Amino acid sequence: MALLLTRTDIQSFLTIKDAMEAVEEAFRQLALGTVDMPQRPVIRVPDHHGVVLFMPALIGGMGALGMKVVSVYPDNPKKYDKPTVLGLILLNDPATGEVVAIMDGGFITAMRTGAVSGVATKYLARSDAQVAGVFGAGVQARAQLLALAEARPLVRAVVYDVVPEARQRFAADLSAQLGIPVEPVDDPRAAVEGCDVIATATSARDPIFDGNWVAPGTHINGIGSHAPDMRELDTAIIQKARVIVDLRAAALAEAGDLIIPIQEGAITADHIAGELGEVIAGRIPGRTSPDEITIFKSEGLAIQDVSVATKVYQLARARSIGQEISI
Q1: Which domains does the chain have, with CATH numbers?
Q2: Catalytic residue positions?
């Protein structure tokens, strides 16, 4: 028997705090060497501008085993009235290999991506960070701001999106949810200047703001770009920042934000200061000074999905949520 959990099921109980706790421990286990996580295969579907990724992981220190299949189709909302990101997660019993849960992966993808930014912000942002800037107004961006507010006591946030209606909805919804003013802005510069923490969660192929706008002491979570020829962050900001990644090999294979400056000769691979798990485990420092600009560049790892899915499974069992099915 396997437990079937729908998006509605998961949304009824999973919090960003739960997701952050799971993801933080997963990255600590990665640094400790208990993780088996093959490089994810990526299938590109150029006729439909989409990609499909297959993401397995074993986190020995958490007793977590599973795989996510996720697709990213930027044309979905406009052409098919479907989310850009769709996913499904299979969770296995590490002792027997049996599939014990089948669950929606779309909401978990958003929450675990927000969660890793929250964890990165916890370790890399200034302790007195109070103002957040968000690029993007979709599901991913919403989870980003929820996580930033969990990591730091925000007093204000601003959001920029190329679609005015989207940023206005985002601002209204998140203002109500967080109890702080969230302002929609029509100029990218307004989502950078005056912000202590910035999250980029867009489908842009080219840099979305001028790195020279970024003030000393700012922390940036770069989330949206996921291919060697895509980037949200320009060379200028990459050059002057301390860069922490989720996994060095993944970043050098997939992160256009880093690959393009390397190809330009502006930086080398050694510009990457380290991995988030190393910071969490205390092996390397996160922020080294109040004026330092820090960047967390995330490509998204299977350990995030499997750790959060394991937490979801445990919480669902405790609450008797979900449907038992026989396969």
Answers
A1: 2-109+303-325 (3.30.1780.10), 124-300 (3.40.50.720)
A2: 68
